[in-house]
Design goal:
This protein is 29% helix and 28% strand. It is an alpha+beta fold. A hairpin with a 3-residue loop joins strand 12 (215-217) and strand 13. The mean pLDDT is 96. The structure holds adenosine monophosphate and glycine.
Length: 424
């Protein structure tokens, strides 16, 4: 069969790599893709937000399946456009993707259906939010309602900081229209875990757990980023935690979306915090995590196209997900200065060292081919260097060794990805 993957990041490279392993696939297209994806798929330069053009491409290439990777087109309704044109598509429609598209919606959903999460209030004007803060306990968390590239969350230690935060989100519109509404939320402490799940509208099947490192600098310091590295599984995600989450969080979320007339078919990413009072939801995403996909998908034993079919056809209850009893670590090589200012266009050396390997992978996040035919850096996060190992410590050692095989000017990586492994 022919498959079109929509997106251009490390997540989409991991999805394309997994689809390429399927016995059922003959040809993969990616729109727009990147220089790494081009090794596995035919990349076609159609931007992800040009919905009709993506649909034209899928029709023209006669693809049997479209997989939509990123949040923006999902929340914007690309899946609806594709389905309306009769194209078989994997991903939530607009009605369901609101789970990620509006934090106020997702908080109200959790409250209504008793899904454990931080206490909160929603606000649609700055005056009310500022008045509320006067009586609130610090630290406190402010969240812009809409999509903000994972950066719309402010953790404020003092009332002054919180007031500044409200002003920058709601008045100065630091995150644009994403800040038209805002959630003010109780600050929680605990270990963070990411769990990706497949959903067919009724049934939900969790994949293996992972943990992200969102801050730019070692020791979880510096600015929030899209993610500087991941490992899987999380040693803190025990069987007991898993049982609790299946019963109190995962299934109730899918049931709630159904009850609201918004059945969710696709991947729900649960950002969880393991608090003293038990696991609570930090956030929902309506897609694979990036860079969580880079450590979860290489460990998956199923043919991903079988699982996707089950999600689309509503037969996930007959599918068992299988993950290898091993571990994976992904270290992101970023451009120095990310997430603020950085230079692009530097040639990347050593990519050939990953060819033909099935224990180390170099997933491209921000790369492109230049006029000279060289693969050059083209974004803040450039590569996700990933390695498998029989356990987390071995995977971490292998991943850091693999980062030495590849190189570009101005490269920056964290030195402590997987630090939590030693604390388990
Ligand atoms: P989010 O985009 O909602 O996942 O938030 C980004 C990061 O902010 C999370 O990964 C957490 O580290 C942190 N965060 C979000 N909400 C809270 C909360 N209620 N308490 C403590 N930390 C939070
Ligand atoms: N790694 C966090 C995310 O994908 O949102």
């Amino acid at each position: 069969m022919k498959v079109l993957v929509v997106g251009s990041g490390g997540r989409e490279h991991a999805i394309v790599y997994k689809v390429a392993q399927s016995k059922r696939v003959d040809k993969i297209y990616c729109a727009p893709g990147n220089a790494g994806i081009a090794g596995l798929a035919e990349c076609v330069p159609v931007p992800v937000m040009e919905f009709e053009k993506i649909a034209d491409l899928a029709e023209e290439k006669k693809v049997d399946l479209v997989i939509v990777g990123p949040d923006d087109p999902l929340v914007g309704g690309l899946v609806d456009v594709l389905k309306a044109r009769g194209l078989r598509t994997f991903g939530p429609d607009k009605k369901a993707a609101i789970l990620e598209g509006s934090k106020a919606f997702s908080k109200d959903l959790m409250k209504k259906y008793n899904i454990p999460t931080a206490a909160y209030e929603n606000f649609d004007n700055a005056e009310d939010a500022l008045a509320y803060l006067e009586t609130a306990k610090m630290p406190i968390v402010l969240k812009a309602d809409g999509l903000a590239l994972g950066k719309g969350v402010l953790i404020c230690n003092t009332l002054e900081e919180a007031k500044e935060g409200v002003k920058s989100i709601m008045q100065d519109k630091q995150f644009g229209d994403a800040g038209n509404r805002m959630v003010v939320e109780e600050f929680m402490t605990g270990r963070e875990v990411s769990v990706l799940t497949f959903c067919d509208g009724k049934t939900i099947r969790p994949m293996t757990s992972a943990q992200d490192h969102k801050r730019a600098l070692d020791g979880d310091k510096g600015l929030n980023t899209g993610g500087m590295g991941t490992f899987s599984p999380s040693p803190f995600y025990t069987e007991e935690v898993d049982r609790f989450c299946r019963e109190k969080i995962y299934q109730p979320t899918v049931d709630a979306m159904c009850a609201e007339g918004r059945p969710f078919k696709g991947v729900i990413f649960f950002g969880l915090m393991l608090t003293e009072d038990g696991p609570k939801v930090l956030e929902y995403n309506a897609r694979f995590g990036d860079p969580e996909a880079q450590v979860v998908l290489p460990r998956m034993e199923n043919d991903i196209l079988d699982v996707i079919d089950a999600c689309i056809d509503g037969t996930l209850d007959q599918t068992d997900l299988r993950f290898a009893d091993n571990a994976a670590v992904c270290v992101v090589l970023a451009s120095n200065g990310y997430p603020l200012h950085y230079e692009k266009g530097f040639p990347i050396r050593g990519l050939e060292n990953f060819e033909g390997r099935d224990d180390i992978f170099c997933f491209h996040a921000g790369t492109k081919l230049n006029e000279k035919g060289e693969i050059v850096t083209n974004g803040g996060r450039v590569l996700g260097v990933t390695a498998l190992g029989s356990n987390l410590k071995e995977a971490r050692k292998n991943a850091y060794a693999a980062t030495e095989l590849v190189d570009f000017d101005n490269a920056y990586k964290r030195g402590d990805i997987g630090r939590a492994i030693d604390e388990a």
